[in-house]
């Protein structure tokens, strides 16, 4: 490895690590246990973990078929469709929250339809949190899976087809097993992104304790009232995210997730 790469690599690492060090220097570590075990903090953490888990399952259920379609389909306009799917990666989360609000809110065409036909109101509920998290997190899964499908090629699928396997059998017996390592990695990234989601959530779901106030929103609320508590909760969120990525992602990449 060229030694010159260490210079930009060190700068990149410093850009990520030093802000966390700044948080640690600002924190009274002796008070951290007291600050992170408050009822509001534990409720927000539980809600974050539960909604992030559900949204990750939604990402898998919807993102796997979508990634296969994007990687294998030859229909016209697939590049435009791919750009639309990846739009949440570049949109400000607040814009995504507004888009969801004007789709599923009382004045949105789908929200109005749900309200009239089923009496269902989606915004400012826990379901809204899950939808917002899925909206911002699913592209991470789709990118991982589509990249794996494209880099791996379709040779094995073609061989299975020539041997008489039906498309569903090829997908189930060939495509899915090949996707498992990338699926694990993408799912972990989606979970971590959902866990840290803020902008779309506060815009579309609001900030109601025990209902929609996830841990990032609790950090925001505490920042206006108790900075020490906000910093402690921010560190808690960082620790949870690092544990998820560091423990789960390497196993997923090796295809040995347990």
Strand proportion, as a percent range, falls in under 5%
The coarse silhouette is globular
Chain-averaged pLDDT: 88
- The tally of beta strands, per DSSP, is 0
The helix tally amounts to: 13
* Biggest beta sheet attributes: none
Listing every helix as H and every strand as E from the N terminus to the C terminus, the arrangement reads: HHHHHHHHHHHHH
Protein architecture, described:
- With 258 residues, this protein is an all-alpha fold.
- Helix content is 79%, strand content 0%.
- The chain contains 13 helices and no strands.
- The chain has helices spanning 6-26, 32-36, 39-72, 78-85, 87-90, 93-104, 109-118, 126-152, 155-162, 167-195, 199-204, 215-225, 227-254.
- Helix 8 crosses helix 10 (167-195).
- The longest helix has 34 residues, at 39-72.
- The relative contact order is 0.15.
- The model has no long low-confidence stretch (mean pLDDT 88).
Break the fold down into its secondary structure elements and pairings.
Blueprint: H1 6-26, H2 32-36, H3 39-72, H4 78-85, H5 87-90, H6 93-104, H7 109-118, H8 126-152, H9 155-162, H10 167-195, H11 199-204, H12 215-225, H13 227-254
Briefly characterize the structure.
The protein has 258 residues and is mainly alpha-helical. It has helices at residues 6-26, 32-36, 39-72, 78-85, 87-90, 93-104, 109-118, 126-152, 155-162, 167-195, 199-204, 215-225, 227-254. The two termini are 33 Å apart.
